[in-house]
Amino acid sequence: MSSLLRGRAGRVTQAQVWELAAHLTDRDREIVVTLFEQRVLRTDQVAVLFFSSVRRAQDRMLFLYRHRVVDRFYPAAPRGAGKPQAHWLLDDAGAHIVAACLDVDRRALHWERRSDWGAHRHLAHRLGVNGFVTRLVAATLKAPGAGVARWHGPGAVARVLPGGLSEKPIPDAGVQLSTPAGRVECLLEWDRGTESGSVLREKLYRYRRASDDARGGTVANVLFVVPSERRVETLRRALVDADRPSEWDLVREHWEYWPLLVTTTGELDDAGPLGRIWRSVDQSRRSPLALVDLTPPPDGEEPVPLADCLGRRWRKENPEFWARLSPLTARR
Questions:
Q1: Which of 18, 94, 110, 189 could make an SS bond with 90 (beta carbons 3.0 to 4.6 A apart)?
Q2: CATH number for the domain formed by residue range(s) 3-120
Q3: How far apart are CA 279 and CA 326, in angstroms?
Q4: Which Pfam families match (predicted)?
Q5: Is-same-fold flag (3-120; 123-306)?
Q6: What is the residue extent of each domain of the chain?
Q7: Per-residue tens of pLDDT for the chain, all 332 residues
Q8: DSSP assignments along 283-327, one per residue
Q9: Comparing C-alpha atoms, which of 170, 240, 158, 155 is closest to residue 203?
Q10: How far apart are CA 316 and CA 51, in angstroms?
Q11: pTM over 0.85
Q12: Contact (Cβ atoms closer than 8 angstroms) between residue 211 and residue 187
């Protein structure tokens, strides 16, 4: 552990938290709750979600860092690549603020400060997931009528999925997309090609069980992002293996109810998350879809006002921006 991390490892007192609370805005509170759910965000990702520029994000995150609300690290970069972006995560004062925002005891968060995120084995996966969602938010800022209404981390989204605890799928993220036709629920699986076919088969089986339990209720689109076309075929074979041929009619009906869609990271890089790049895993649909083309459930909720969607809520053109930004009007 570096000397800087050792110097920040002590507990923040309740008195310090109360004093700090008078200087926090609603935006600060949303930032720390997001970091609690999503674990780690780069500066550019924080900027997309909460600021109008990277510079403004840097300035405010530095304030929160100095007051132990957030912590940061800089992962190693190849020689000559320049200094990497700061990677932000929750710190001790931030955990107290999250507990107050969620109205739970601080100990009920089950949060512990970590000093090893720079070398953590799940860092690349978490950054991939969070990068996808923040790219989606950024893309909706240029798409008329589309916005990301909600973003839940794996723990939060798994809790609301139907089924028993031992059989629930645990998506990497849950995203609610607001379109002119209504709200579309999406569950993200960020696949780096490291899991075996048997693990994929078990994952698909769990999604099938969850969708059967949700029949007549929740409708979700399961989005797989995979590294290559070869991995697409692995996923398709796992789908066939997960369902016996004698059940094919039921399976087809099931996957129409909870569509399984896939794209590759190459297609994602070329066209962006809102491009027509999403193919059905079972090949039941010939033409790729865009996420804004997905059909909301017939009894679904109305679209969320764009001003309330992620990335737009904290932009200056939002009529409530300045009121939300003032600590004097923030919720205590």
A1: 94
A2: 1.10.10.10
A3: 45
A4: Replic_Relax (PF13814)
A5: no
A6: 3-120, 123-306
A7: 233 333 466 678 778 888 888 889 999 999 999 999 999 999 999 999 999 999 999 999 999 999 999 999 998 777 766 788 999 999 999 999 999 999 999 888 888 877 666 667 788 999 999 999 999 999 999 998 899 999 999 988 888 887 666 678 899 999 999 999 899 999 999 999 999 999 999 999 888 888 877 766 667 899 999 999 999 999 999 998 876 544 444 444 556 678 899 999 999 999 999 999 999 998 877 789 999 999 888 777 889 999 999 999 998 887 788 777 776 554 43
A8: ---SS-B-GGGSPPPTTPPPPPPGGGSTTTTTSTTSTTHHHHH-T
A9: 170
A10: 9
A11: yes
A12: no
Task: Tell me which residue of 257, 249, 271, 266 sits closest to 219, measured CA to CA.
Answer: 257
Please give the structure tokens belonging to residue 123.
């860092």
Q: What is the 3-state secondary structure (H, E, C) of 1-35?
A: CCHHHHHCCCCCCHHHHHHHHCCCCHHHHHHHHHH
Radius of gyration over every alpha carbon of the chain, rounded to an integer in angstroms: 21
Token pair of 148 as six digits: 């990301």
